């Protein structure tokens, strides 16, 4: 205590001991925090009043300036003005707390957690009142902490000194009538006059004002003349008429639930919105303070309580106060919140309401009776859903503008929230408000709402129609809630609904519907639709949006989805539509459970959460995405790093997510809330900047994982180091090489490693003995990319570079399953925690989820893409090599007839017209009889792999080309052979060229050496040798009349040549990549060329002008306009339709250059397609060996 204050207290000691009652003063001093309860008890223990006074003064002399000021203020409040005047001149410098205490500003709550962002926002507004009077409105819903925020905002010495040297005066209002309001203003005026008299004894006290008007004028006088630069805080204003009584041209801070109240007063105005909930860490800190614990040691129910009430300060405080008395009731209070039993959450406190339901009801009661009924109708809304006003105009039968006006009233009173970032505005309720309304059980509203809506969903929504978007998303929710089961069946089992909603909302919302309402839907039909969406979801995410009917035609014939699609395809075909039915699909079963395309770019890592409900993925898009494992619905997407994200991992409790990247950084995210705005800093959490990033590695960080107890994070890098880091304090626990560590618990560790010397094998070691337990050898054509052991069985999953995933039993060393379907390298695999599911991620931008007990080693025929097809009067004969060293021959509708061959896998095959045999090509071509498989001839002579073979039309001559740079013309019945030599590189293909006017048939060959050569097949004489391109010649086609032929090259050009003059007549420039294929139209007027970028160009053959460019609007998942290289082209006989193959098959309108239809195979990289003469049947094989026989739907 200052010496002057101490001396004054000693000089006045006798007068004070004689007159004061210590018991009256001590209540105020305890409230100010300068006196403790124990000290009060010791003073009260003195037998007489005078001894109590002496003891209090003796105690004061041992305390600080704040105690002196508190004692002085207590004398004022208890009407000891004469005694207070003895101490006035020796008052120490006034602190902000003293000013606030004098002005009646409440002390901080016993349990207090700061909200600095909001406090700074209010202080910023208050600084605007420094030069002139005005109003600052702090508004928010019931229990959001407005009063505590207002009190905390003025606890700032600079603010009080610079802006409000006249003091801060607090007045609690609440719901008052005129009489009560008069009493409050009288009390405020008396307090202000008393304080003024203490400072200036010459001023006198006036009688209390007798009317509200007189009280207003008295307050105006005091604020303008005696407290000209002071702040008046009006807490909990409900009525504009009450606020008008304080419209006296002073500085006012008011708290309210109704943001529009300040509209009725004059002067400058600003406002601060108080969020309805605390951040999770703030709410947990409050609960921890109540139970005298630490946030990290609270039970799991603590987080659930905070999430259930959305961090409401009122609910958190009520529950915390109850838990202080009953610390074992965490589960009980969580259950109470979940059951919406708000009346049971009751606790006496300084707040005006002892229970949440009271606070909610008070807000609703201030509405007019008409608006109160409308507000209760909002119970039809779903949690966390924002709706446009037009949705409720259906229910209320009001114009949208009228609904907007009603909503504005609700928003002003903090009963409804508005998202102003959308046009039209979107509105939503806080969960607590919605739960409170739900207790009123207005279930009959749902039926009327749905019936009033049906007419609005007859057609597709217009762009930006928020009302339509709402109904497409939530119509099923309202139907189920209204028990409209039959209507729900009709809606969800309609392919039209699937198509429209998938186009608008994406497939994940649809899959969620089938999962959510599966219990009330037909199980079998629900399975048909859910399987269709789960396996085609990545296609339905593509833009332009695919034809759902065509996709559905690939479903099994027994599926309800296929039945509806076939009916629609048949009906559209009568109007000129083009649809293809996959007629041989019955033997093929899809093994995938879900296919998701979460990123644009390669996916390097994906992992299950430990509860199995979520999947996280990351890749070259530099993003981290979390989605539901049942439907693929996106829960979170963030830009995680500045470079490729190479790995992601959930912590064992799923609260954290770690990512590591090529940018050499490791980051840890809060995975429990799955919201970008709620990402928290887990390291150095007290620093103001984001500190959730770990540095230290010098090269890309390839892998990360958490320790089982969530304490450590291990990371490995291309710099050759392994680091184990403490998550909480960011310190290195282990930094290899050169350190070692031991685990406290014994764990069974199985380590799988990939040897640089043996990239096609997987080795399993015993960690303790370092002995190799098992070596699994995979295909020599593939490299092991990743492996993961199943936690519930002896299976290990292996990700391979040849687009496949294999499952092996490590006890029997037997391959148990092939998981085919990815279109590019598979980078990662992981089993779900219970082992029932397996996920894989790939360069093809997809994550696939497989059911472990349903995948198996395929017994189906896996064919090579080199094949030949014979169309003969409606019959189809297909010949192709398979992956079991057999040549497969079949006719449509018949079983495969397979012929065992030499150990070397067969190469391309060729069928001659019936009844002649066919040829297949290992190193030495063989000619066999159909269908017996009897070998008719073995033709030896080529020294390297044969790449192509073809019979001449009469069937007696077989032509072959090889990697040995030669072409051989065989009279296969006699074994005679003519060798055509001259190419310098492999000859991948050739064609027969009939020239005019002699009508002689010559052989046209092309090679990677950039040349075209023309041969006399009888003599082997080279007739022409054309150096036609600077790069490899990739394709060649002869016009139907034989007058022209076209070549395409890796030099990105195509050329048209005359077969009469052997000169180039057209140079076709424009492609941006290798030109892979070409085809003349049947009338010889057009030439189609396709490149490796997926672009197709149509040219005028006569003058070489470009007619059309056929391509998608944007690149697809394979970074192509056609899913890969354009490998084959065919015109229809009438030249109106062009067929192209690449990653998928497309049909184009030749005149418009527009796509007519697309067929998506299960695999990709189609090499060739065979077309029937009438252009109605199409046969091809994809890269995973699936045969497709497609027929036009008539």
TrEMBL record:
Biological process (GO), any one: apoptotic signaling pathway
Listed CDD domains: WD40 (cd00200)
Single Gene Ontology MF annotation: ADP binding
Pfam families found in the cross-reference section: APAF1_C, CARD, NB-ARC, WD40, WHD_APAF1
WD repeat start and end residues: 638-670, 694-724, 819-860, 939-980, 980-1025, 1026-1058, 1068-1109
Residue ranges constituting the CARD domain according to the UniProt record: 1-90
GO cellular component, one term: apoptosome
The entry's keywords: Apoptosis, Repeat, WD repeat
Keyword Ligase included in the entry's annotation: no
TM ranges: none
InterPro entries linked to this entry: Apaf-1 (IPR017251), APAF1_C (IPR041452), Apaf_helical (IPR042197), CARD (IPR001315), DEATH-like_dom_sf (IPR011029), Intein_N (IPR006141), NB-ARC (IPR002182), P-loop_NTPase (IPR027417)
Gene3D superfamilies noted in UniProt: 1.25.40.370, Death Domain, Fas (1.10.533.10), Helical domain of apoptotic protease-activating factors (1.10.8.430), P-loop containing nucleotide triphosphate hydrolases (3.40.50.300), Winged helix-like DNA-binding domain superfamily/Winged helix DNA-binding domain (1.10.10.10), YVTN repeat-like/Quinoprotein amine dehydrogenase (2.130.10.10)
Annotated PANTHER family: APOPTOTIC PROTEASE-ACTIVATING FACTOR 1
Protein name as annotated: Apoptotic peptidase activating factor 1
């Amino acid at each position: 205590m200052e010496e002057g204050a101490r001396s004054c207290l000693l000089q006045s000691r006798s007068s004070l001991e004689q007159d004061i009652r210590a018991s009256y003063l001590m209540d105020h001093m305890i409230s100010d925090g300068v006196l403790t309860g124990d000290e009060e008890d010791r003073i009260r223990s003195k037998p007489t009043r005078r001894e109590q006074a002496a003891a209090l003064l003796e105690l004061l002399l041992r305390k600080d300036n704040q105690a002196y000021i508190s004692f002085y203020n207590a004398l004022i409040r208890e009407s000891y003005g004469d005694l207070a005047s003895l101490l006035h001149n020796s008052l120490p410098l006034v602190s902000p707390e003293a000013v606030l205490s004098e002005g009646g500003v409440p002390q901080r709550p016993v349990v207090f957690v700061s909200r600095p962002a909001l406090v700074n926002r209010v202080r910023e507004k208050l600084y605007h009142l420094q030069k002139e009077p005005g109003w600052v409105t702090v508004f928010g819903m019931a229990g959001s902490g407005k009063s505590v925020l207002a009190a905390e905002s003025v606890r700032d010495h600079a603010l009080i000194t610079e802006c409000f040297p006249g003091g801060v005066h607090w007045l609690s209002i609440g719901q008052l009538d005129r009489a009560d309001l008069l009493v409050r203003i009288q009390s405020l005026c008396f307090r202000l006059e008393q304080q003024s008299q203490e400072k200036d004894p010459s001023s006198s006290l006036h009688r209390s004002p007798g009317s509200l008007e007189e009280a207003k004028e008295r307050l105006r006088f005091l604020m303008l003349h005696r407290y000209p630069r002071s702040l008046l805080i009006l807490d909990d204003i409900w009525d504009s008429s009450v606020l008008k009584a304080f419209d006296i041209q002073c500085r006012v801070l008011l708290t309210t639930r109704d943001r529009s109240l300040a509209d009725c007063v004059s002067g400058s105005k600003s406002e601060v919105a108080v969020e309805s909930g605390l951040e999770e860490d703030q709410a947990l800190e409050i609960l921890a303070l109540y139970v005298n614990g630490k946030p990290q040691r609270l039970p799991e129910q603590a987080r659930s309580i905070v999430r259930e009430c959305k961090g409401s300060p009122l609910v958190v405080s009520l529950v915390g106060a109850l838990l202080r008395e009953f610390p074992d009731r965490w589960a009980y209070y969580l259950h109470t919140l979940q059951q919406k039993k708000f009346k049971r959450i009751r606790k006496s406190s300084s707040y005006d309401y002892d229970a949440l339901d009271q606070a909610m009801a008070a807000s609703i009661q201030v509405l007019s009776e008409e608006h109160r009924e409308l507000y209760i109708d909002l119970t039809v809304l779903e949690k966390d859903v924002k709706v446009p006003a037009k949705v409720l105009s259906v229910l209320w039968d009001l114009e949208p503008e009228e609904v907007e006006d009603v909503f504005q009233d609700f928003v002003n009173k903090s009963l409804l929230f508005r998202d102003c970032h959308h046009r039209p505005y979107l509105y939503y309720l806080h969960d607590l408000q919605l739960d409170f309304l739900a207790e009123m059980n207005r279930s009959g509203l749902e039926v009327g709402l749905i019936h009033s809506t049906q007419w609005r969903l007859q057609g597709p929504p217009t762009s930006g129609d928020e009302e339509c978007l709402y109904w497409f998303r939530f119509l099923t929710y309202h139907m189920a809630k209204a028990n409209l089961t039959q209507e729900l069946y009709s809606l969800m089992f309609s392919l039209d609904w699937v198509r429209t909603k998938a186009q608008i909302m994406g497939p994940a919302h649809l899959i969620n519907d089938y999962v959510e309402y599966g219990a009330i839907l037909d199980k079998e039909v629900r399975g048909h639709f859910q399987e269709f969406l789960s396996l085609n979801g990545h296609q339905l995410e593509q833009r332009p949006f695919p034809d759902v009917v065509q996709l559905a035609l690939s479903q099994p014939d027994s599926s309800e989805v296929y039945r509806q699609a076939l009916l629609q395809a048949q009906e559209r075909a009568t109007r000129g539509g083009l649809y293809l039915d996959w007629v041989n699909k019955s033997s093929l079963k899809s093994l995938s459970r879900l296919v998701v395309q979460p990123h644009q770019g390669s996916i390097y890592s994906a992992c299950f959460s430990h509860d199995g409900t979520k999947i996280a993925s990351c890749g070259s898009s530099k993003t981290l995405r979390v989605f539901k494992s049942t439907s693929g619905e996106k829960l979170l997407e963030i830009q995680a790093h500045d470079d490729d994200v190479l790995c992601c991992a959930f912590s064992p409790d799923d609260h954290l997510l770690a990512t590591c990247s090529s940018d050499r950084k490791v980051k840890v995210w809060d995975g429990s809330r799955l919201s970008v705005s709620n990402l928290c800093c887990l390291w150095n959490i007290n620093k103001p900047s984001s500190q959730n990033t770990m540095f230290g590695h010098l090269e890309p960080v390839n892998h990360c994982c958490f320790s089982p107890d969530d304490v450590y994070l291990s990371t490995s890098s291309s710099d050759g180091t392994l680091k184990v880091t403490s998550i909480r304090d960011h310190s290195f626990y282990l930094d290899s090489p050169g350190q070692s560590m031991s685990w406290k618990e014994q764990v069974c560790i199985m380590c799988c490693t990939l040897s640089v010397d043996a990239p096609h094998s997987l080795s399993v070691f015993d960690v303790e003995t370092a002995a190799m337990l098992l070596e699994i050898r995979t295909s020599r054509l593939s490299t092991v990319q990743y492996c993961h052991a199943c936690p519930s069985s002896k299976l290990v999953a292996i990700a391979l570079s040849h687009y496949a995933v294999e499952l092996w039993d490590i006890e029997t060393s037997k391959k148990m399953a092939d998981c085919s379907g990815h279109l590019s390298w598979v980078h990662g695999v992981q089993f779900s925690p219970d082992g029932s599911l397996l996920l894989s991620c790939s360069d093809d931008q997809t994550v696939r989820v497989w059911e472990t007990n349903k995948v198996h080693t395929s017994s189906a025929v896996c064919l090579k893409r080199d094949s030949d097809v014979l169309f003969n009067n409606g019959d189809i004969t297909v010949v192709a090599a398979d992956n079991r060293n057999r040549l497969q021959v079949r006719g449509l509708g018949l079983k495969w007839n397979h012929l065992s061959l030499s150990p070397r896998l067969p190469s391309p095959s060729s069928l001659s017209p019936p009844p002649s045999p066919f040829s297949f090509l290992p190193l030495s071509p063989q000619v066999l009889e159909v269908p017996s498989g009897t070998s008719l001839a073995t033709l030896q002579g080529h020294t390297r792999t044969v790449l192509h073979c073809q019979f001449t039309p009469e069937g007696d001559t077989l032509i072959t080309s090889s990697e040995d740079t030669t072409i051989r013309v065989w009279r296969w019945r006699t074994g005679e052979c003519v060798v055509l030599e001259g190419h310098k590189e492999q000859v991948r293909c050739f064609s027969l060229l009939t020239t005019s006017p002699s009508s002689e048939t010559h052989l046209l060959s092309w090679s990677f050496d950039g040349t075209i050569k023309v041969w006399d097949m009888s003599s082997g004489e080279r007739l022409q040798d054309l150096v036609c391109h600077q790069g490899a010649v990739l394709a060649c086609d002869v016009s139907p009349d034989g007058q022209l032929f076209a070549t395409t090259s890796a030099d990105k050009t195509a050329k048209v040549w005359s077969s009469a003059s052997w000169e180039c007549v057209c140079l076709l420039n424009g492609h941006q990549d290798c030109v892979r294929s070409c085809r003349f139209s049947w009338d010889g007027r057009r030439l189609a060329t396709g490149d490796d970028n997926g672009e197709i160009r149509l040219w005028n053959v006569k003058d070489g002008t470009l007619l059309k460019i056929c391509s998608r609007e944007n690149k697809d998942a394979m970074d192509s306009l056609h899913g890969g290289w354009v490998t084959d082209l065919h015109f229809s006989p009438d030249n109106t339709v062009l067929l192209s193959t690449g990653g998928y098959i497309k049909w184009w309108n030749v005149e418009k250059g527009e796509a007519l239809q697309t067929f998506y195979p299960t695999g990709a990289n189609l090499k060739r397609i065979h077309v029937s003469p009438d252009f109605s049947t199409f046969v091809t094989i994809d890269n995973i060996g699936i045969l497709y026989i497609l027929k036009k739907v008539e």
